[in-house]
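Pipeline run #58 for the internal structure catalog. This entry was flagged by the ingest filter as a single-chain record with no existing model, so it goes straight to prediction. Upstream metadata was stripped on purpose; only the residue string is passed forward. Reviewer on rotation: M.T. Logging verbosity set to normal.
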Amino acid sequence: MDDLKSKYLGLIAAAADEAAIEDVRLGALGKKGEISLKMRELGGMSPEERQVAGPALNALKDEINSALAAKKAALADTALDERLRGEWLDVTLPARGRRTGTIHPISQVTEEVTAIFADMGFAVAEGPQIDSDWYNFDALNIPGHHPARAEMDTFYMHRAEGDNRPPHVLRTHTSPVQIRTMEKHGAPIRIIAPGRVYRADYDQTHTPMFHQVEGLAIDRDISMANLKWCLEEFVKAYFEVDHVDLRFRASHFPFTEPSAEVDIRCSWEGGTLKVGEGDDWLEILGSGMVHPKVLQNAGVDPNEWQGFAFGMGIDRIAMLKYGIPDLRAFFDSDLRWLRHYGFAALDVPTLHGGLSK
């Protein structure tokens, strides 16, 4: 046994890799290993001989196993040291430049519009994007034969056969928010309602989903003069100019009477829009005095209260202010476009600090 011990401890010490360690293990402790064969000889010994040889063989086996494990661990440590030396990295070197995300122009312009109207005392109201045709059409005095109610213009939700509930639509404007807010809070009221809206249209200036902001102010003595002042102040603040000319053109909307489309004086020098100067006019929004039937449908007495409403496309005014030529690019998720037109996350628009940086 002393000879076996010396032999295998020497082979273990001389092993240069895990393959050599495995060969030594098999030669000593495998099924046909020398120590294993000695263990089998115990059966042919007398009880007295087994009492001496058995413990000695077990001790030898344990010692060889311990030596094998220690050598294997030592080889693993050596391999790790070699790997660490080869993969060494100086962590004090400058890190790679890290790109930061940007705020989408739609989000930025929504915040700009909110900041401007908040300064005038308007609160922000929100409502569901899927609404009944009562809130989207009927409550707003839009008759059943109106073209906007056709399926070629409006996305209707599927109804199972036999479902007698009122049809629901993807809202075509944020005007339903005005009805719901008046139902809940009554009058007087002063709100804007920004959000997503949906219409079946798609080209360079139209997409099936886009963004609107609508305003509503109800009180006892509000007039078109208040509407005109409010919109003038908004346009000056939004385009960051000291003077602006607005032109109100008579129009027709079912939910306002009288109704007017609003144009701004501008010029297109070198393809760049300049607001407040020039001989051109550009339509930017629709407005008017809230129709008495709309007030009545919302639970507000039209004999006691009156007010104005207006609506504009957030995407459209973003295109005008920041020179974005194609509305469809807003929804392409092109990182190059986002980096070019996006805004820094900390550039929060305020009237005193500047809307756009």
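catalog note: The chain has two domains: 2-85, 105-341.
catalog note: The longest strand covers residues 256-269.
status: ready for reviewer M.T.
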